[in-house]
Amino acid sequence: MASPSDLFSAARAASEKAYAPYSKFPVGAAILADDGTVYAGANVENLAYPEGICAEGVAIGHMIMGGAKAIKAVAVYAPRLALCSPCGGCRQKLAEFSDKATEVYLCDDGGVRETVTVAALLPHAFDTEDIG
Ligand SMILES: O=c1ccn([C@H]2C[C@H](O)[C@@H](CO)O2)c(=O)[nH]1
Ligand SMILES: [Zn+2]
Fold first, then answer.
1. What is the CATH number of domain 4-131?
2. Mutate which of 16, 23, 24 to test ligand 1's pocket (most atoms within 8 Å of Cβ)?
């Protein structure tokens, strides 16, 4: 089973594949899924700026297409920032496939620097209980 350090390494490797010519801000994400597989993603930007997608969203897409159903842990890494914390949209996307206690590892070049939960990132989340 992938460790937090393994997820950091996978997120950092993924960031090298980012397509971020506009922001010049590459990001990598790596998800440990319920099938034991690590699914990675990097941000993919677009000339039409709002059409860019975040690293976390790409990793989630890979996870779903790989047949996995749930996020057990996720690492996020950006070389140009001490700690890259998921944006608001990504917090909602991560919550969709996580438990409240699912751990999110915020990484810099030294590895995992901070561990937070999905619930801490998205308190009072809109979740399935809200729509029955
Ligand atoms: O958690 C984050 C935060 C930002 N970005 C991307 C979006 C955009 O391509 C670039 C600058 O915001 O970083 C991510 O991929 N994940
Ligand atoms: Zn995002």
1. 3.40.140.10
2. 23
Q: In 66-121, where does DSSP find H-type helix?
A: 88-96, 118-121
- Pick the closest to residue 41 from 3, 81, 4, 78 (CA basis): 78
ipTM: 0.99
CA angle, residues 22, 50, 76, in degrees to nearest 5: 70
- Residues in Cβ contact with 118 at an 8 Å cutoff, skipping those fewer than 6 apart: 91, 94, 95, 98, 99, 100, 101, 102, 104
Bind-site residues for substrate: 43-49
Q: Which of 17, 25, 44, 122 to mutate to test the pocket of ligand 1 (most atoms within 8 A of CB)?
A: 25
Mean pLDDT of 25-36: 97
Closest-CA residue to 28 (of 39, 38, 13): 13
Domain ranges of the chain: 4-131
Q: What is the pTM of this model?
A: 0.95
